[in-house]
Amino acid sequence: MRYSRIVGTGGYLPEKVLTNHDLERMVDTSDEWIRSRTGITQRHIAADHEMASDLALHASRKAMEAAGIKAEEIDLIIVATTTPDMIFPSTACILQDKLGARDCPAFDVQAVCSGFIYALATADMFIRAGRCRNALVVGAEVYSRILDWSDRSTCVLFGDGAGAVVLSQSDQPGILSSHLHADGKHSKVLAVPGSICDGKVQGKPFLIMEGNTVFKFAVKILEEVVREALTENNLQASDIDWLIPHQANIRIIQSTAKKLGIPMEKVVVTVDKHGNTSAASIPLALDTAIRDGRIKSGQYVLLEGVGGGFTWGAVLLRW
Ligand code: UT7
Question: Which residue in 64, 94, 172, 239 has the fewest CB atoms around it within 10 Å?
């Protein structure tokens, strides 16, 4: 059997840190409100010259170094992003050029905060179909560019960053299963509704969100999709060694873990330091737990996330 396996991870956070106390000077908010409602204490913000592809480049180089893979060995690049460098070409094509990788398919996936799950599932299918050997899968976001910095209900929640993995062909799993879902009837609940017409932005170019609706939906479907992954693999929640959720809000993470009966000691949390980095949050959390030695060979790791669309999904893997 042909499987795919993550053989290297990398992450990158821009240098500038924006704390809750900094935000207190920008909008009518407080460190206490942000920490108690979200668990966030700080987030990173890209410099003016940094684009999603620049963040992706740093994270990709680290993942490729960890994997011992050179640019010429990469034969597929997928970038999950909602904040691409430009309308086109894709951030994946721009990244390919910056990396010096040549003549491999490269494309972006747009599934908002579930983007990395979608991208990883897609790369797994390419590998299992025998169409590539070494895929670079990246989540890279500069949400600071699509936030209304005078809207306290959204600007305190997000941050910038990138996470990457090298996914390689293997005769041992690796990725055991992936589970993707979407329901477009919720498209107005979490959106950047603006569009471009006649060279101008029509409508609002900033993120809008019905926070409560997203919160309730997230807790419900994340439990469902994790149970779907467990059932397909004949596993119990107690078999999972590490749950790596999308890092949107500590209360969503805690509620999901509680419903599943997974203790918080088995949950990787980075939302406190990174904020919500959308498609970058899961690979950044994975990279954190790999580099600090928490995740060990043979362990079951479950990635799950939900985002605008709504989109949601999970990937179960054996490290
Ligand atoms: O990646 C997926 C996308 N996003 C998410 O997963 C986010 C999901 N939703 C959430 O995390 C939460 O709903 C929020 C953190 C966004 C909001 O928390 P909440 O407990 O649902 O608060 P709320 O929206 O019900 O607002 C409570 C109060 C309101 O004041 P009133 O109407 O009770 O007087 C808000 O105006 O908190 C107020 N508020 C703030 N106060 C201080 C909203 N934002 C802030 C703020 N600082 N930054």
Answer: 172
